[in-house]
Amino acid sequence: QVQLVESGGGVVQPGRSLRLSCAASEFSFNSHSMHWVRQAPGKGLEWVAVVWYDGSKKYYADSVKGRFTISRDTSRNTLYLQMNSLRAEDTAVYYCARDGNSGQFDYWGQGTLVTVSS
Amino acid sequence: QSALTQPASVSGSPGQSITISCTGTSSDVGYYNYVSWYQQHPGKAPKLLIYDVSNRPSGVSNRFSGSKSGNTASLTISGLQAEDEADYYCSSYTSSSTFWVFGGGTKLTVL
Known about the structure:
The structure holds two protein chains of two kinds.
Chain A: E1 3-7, E2 10-12, E3 18-25, E4 34-39, E5 45-51, E6 58-60, E7 68-73, E8 78-83, E9 92-99, E10 105-108, E11 112-116
Parallel strand pairs in A: 2-11
Antiparallel strand pairs in A: 1-3, 3-8, 4-5, 4-9, 5-6, 7-8, 9-10, 9-11
Chain B: E1 9-12, E2 18-23, E3 35-40, E4 47-50, E5 64-69, E6 72-77, E7 86-93, E8 100-102, E9 106-110
Parallel strand pairs in B: 1-9
Antiparallel strand pairs in B: 2-6, 3-4, 3-7, 5-6, 7-8, 7-9
């Protein structure tokens, strides 16, 4: 069964940095693009970033462009999200999600909560 | 404001059918067949219900079906059950700089 397990969330002050990880297992990690999707408390889903299956392309939502960096380590089957210059509006549960190779998010992790507050 | 427009809430009685709409533009829903639907229960991660407009992943009940006409996609749930009470989100690939967009979500209440 496909498993995605996020970690690294917590409380951080505005302007500081945080790195999220997503450990993937039970599927061929280097055959799938991977996404980060977030959900602010009580709000809807917001796509954040994607990294191509081979790491060759990375795209970001306008709201995080220039501040967040998505990456993947195939040797560790792990997806990362480096978040810099954090703002209060970045407070959300962050989910990693596998791309089903047709633009759909076919498996999701349980999410990790990031709270940006002074 | 979300890129795709969904009704904030819908309701239905057990056994009935309901339809949730998802309206986009000619840059997303109207152009690509990469429309998907997700179910989210409180405190849980979203679950994929429909992809490529009308395809169901294995294990998803055939009570869930999807369609599209022009810039509007729809999710229909037939034979409503109590466990269908949840939030539902549509998503589409888009040619805009956002790449992927979601609807604002629809809360389904089973009366």
